[in-house]
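Quick check before the chapter quiz. The format below is the same one you will see on the exam, so make sure you can read both the input and the output lines.
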Amino acid sequence: MTRSRTIAIGDMHGCDAALARLLDVINPDTSDTIVGLGDYVDRGPDTRSIIDRLLRLQGTCQTVFLLGNHELMMRSALIDATDRDFWLRSGGEATLESYDNDLDSISAPHLSFFDSCVPYYEIEDFFFVHANYTPNLALDRQPDFALFWEHLTAHMPGPHVSGKTAVLGHTPQRSCEVLERRHLICLDTFCYGGGWLTAMDVESRQVWQADMNGELRTQEPVAD
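Here is the expected output.
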């Protein structure tokens, strides 16, 4: 029997060619769960295509999409025009261009996607957050600053009280390599900046990576 996989994908930031290539080689089916770690929008050129692709993905496998700080900024900009300049300076200009420079052109399904993103997700041995966490607090008590904004360079947390391994993004690894600690995995490998979009089967540690042009490299799972 084929093993069900839980596959986390790091910060996509509008890099749709990279996402398309990863999904093509991963080929998820109904027994698999894809966990997006947030920051689907901004910086890269194809936010609109990214969201279309993620919506289609919901029909082929189980999906969990975490909320990232860039989705928070975008949602604030849509609600309050006074927040728009901050969002645009933070990478939102690329997203605006992908929607034909017209925020009113964002479709209802796309708006619903942003509203449906969740702050965290957990399974038996792993939990998934966008940015960071406070080690001694349960996931449902985590402060928003930790979940969505705090970089690992500002605070490298110790093991979580749950004993589970944290899988997260947000802190771009300019080495373009996955950051792994005994209790933590960071999958933001700087795709929009010339690195890779990274997907990992968290159980086997198999890694797939694709760049903005859709070029692929793979790493075999680590032996037990």
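If your answer matched, good. The first strand starts at residue 6 and ends at 9.
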